[in-house]
Amino acid sequence: MSVAAVTYDFLSPGRAAAKGGATARVHTALREAIVQLDLKPGEFLDKQAIATRLGVSRFPVGEAMNRLATEGLVDIIPQSGSRVALIKISDARENMFLRRALEVETARTVASTAAPGLVEQLLSNLRYQEAAIDTGDMNGFHGFDLAFHAALQGQLGFERVRMATETARLSLDRVRRMLNTRRRMELTLNEHQAIVAAIELRDGDQAARAMNDHLEAVLAELESFARERPELFADLNTTGGTTK
Fold first, then answer.
1. What's the pLDDT score for residue 20?
2. Where among 84, 115, 132 does a domain terminate?
């Protein structure tokens, strides 16, 4: 399939990677562009144009695309080339299930064991979230959102739980950014505030409910978005729950 001439100006050549060399650098640049939606679901990729933009040969670009294919972010189509993978709503559900299992119990445990200073750290984070909403800084809000959840994981202190949660979260980054509207940011702030209020009271059950409500609300919004933009998703006709 022919691909329209593109320059990929949004790709950052970056610095040479300490490990993995050019392939690692290309992988990082492409993964970031896919997650941030500079490269859209279903968009075909021009290997030569990417190589030119990043100052490498075609080989590391091909290797990077193979890695992204194993991560479910790129589809390699024989005789046609490579394209950004459509989103699988089934994968999003599974990863959100993992997040709920891990983060609801994290909130429950942290609420009853919170060290001095955690509540103030979370309240400070909420103030930054509010400021990001006021200025329309969607990327900034996303960063503070991640930091909020990371603070709770850090308080828990279980490294394997943190890594498992991070893996599930990374798989959701692309769809979360699609939902990053002002309305969703305001709702997220309110949901985070409910979690902190429960932690202030040292009420583990209330904190767990607030975290579950937060994650359920995000998934429900994703389901609604998928019905509105079915062209971005790969499995709406084969996975239950999105055609109600």
1. 64
2. 84
